[in-house]
Amino acid sequence: MITALQILGTVLFGVAVLHTFLVGFFTKISHRFPKHSFLHGFFHLMGEIEVVFAVWAAILMGLFIGIEGWDKAIAYQKSLNFTEPFFIFAIMVICSTRPILTGARQLILAMSSGLQKILRTPAIATDVFVVLTLGPLSGSLITEPAAMTVTAFMLNAILEKESDKLLYAALAVLFVNVSIGGALTPFAAPPILMVAQKWNWDFNYVFFNLGWKSAVAIFVNTLGLILIFKSSLQKGVSLKEVETRMAGAQAAIPLGVTLLHVVFLVGVVLTSHYQNAFLGIFLLFLGVASVTQSYQDSLRLKESLLVSLFLGGIIQFGAFQEWWLSPLLSSLNEFSLFVGAVSLTAVTDNAALTYLGSQVTNLSDASKYSLVAGAIVGGGLTVIANAPNAAGYSILSHRFKSGLSPLSLLLSAIAPTAVAFFCLWVL
């Protein structure tokens, strides 16, 4: 039986989704008031996409308490799993440290330099190709949030004087590639992880049904971006130039410090499903970061917390969507389910979508594939479509002078999403 609270949860979730498309409008309103006034602060807060779902989730929980009482509200909170937001907070902080970023940049630079010598391709174009292919594909090993963080920072270093069209196109390709880039293994992409154990999807099944097709789509998307924006990319900065600048401005990082950071990164990744374990490792990492301060930039604690807040808000709404999502998913044939999953992912986190789908009984093997493939294909359409997108947005948001337009991102993501759609359905 559908309850009034479920309907309320769906209505407020819809309002929150609509709000994400209006953040630029609220930001503009905030400029009409004195900088330190209450109204300026309020509208500026409403213009921060990371806090949108948290604000509406707080309103929902306030109404929950008023309707059902405190005890039931607390019981609902206990039923939720916030492991993913905490994990993304920890992994984003670690991956944004100078030793990790420097090591990743040097590795990508070495691979790019090798390709440039073999293929005699332009430096910046080759750098972008390696960053937007190797970075997302590494998500199958180090998890998608870690891959998103490192890749977004690399992209941020390369793009210096760029047009809005290039920015949106690069962000769209980044989001789509990361969403499908974790599909080589069954443990790295949240939408696959949600169902892999229940449906007995092992490494062979995931790689041969989803992985190689995703890799093809990633290569095509990246090549398309480079060919379309070839002239604009030449205004960027090559990774070799970035490395030269960094070497002249910062102290050289001892190999031992870099390896220690890698150990912490691996430790957090290996314990990513055990909240107490990776938080303990992360707290120890904070101590190490404080004693290696001369080799660090400021830790991105605020930005990482905002991303976690964003995801926590989405999780609060998840259970209230089951009443309409589950019947819808169970009523569709394979192709309709694939198309529906791509579309629904734009307005709800793809991991939540596959989790709800896993609760539907008697799904055929073809329907299971359609659901998961559609969920990862649609993961680049919006910031909320795939959990790691919030991390990428946080890193690159300052590039958008008037703020990120969700509609412009959606339109820019149509082409790379169509490529992924073709590869995962036709190939």
From TrEMBL:
* Pfam families the UniProt entry points to: Na_H_antiport_3 (PF07399)
The answer to whether UniProt assigns keyword Transmembrane to this entry is yes
Please, which domain of life does this record's source organism belong to? Bacteria
Chain coiled-coil ranges: none
> Where does the chain cross the membrane?
6-26, 38-66, 86-106, 141-159, 166-190, 210-229, 249-270, 276-293, 305-325, 337-357, 369-387, 407-426
Q: Which InterPro entries match?
A: Na_H_antiport_3
**Which of UniProt's keywords are assigned here?**
Membrane, Transmembrane, Transmembrane helix
What's the protein here called?
A: Na+/H+ antiporter
Name the species this protein comes from.
Bdellovibrio bacteriovorus
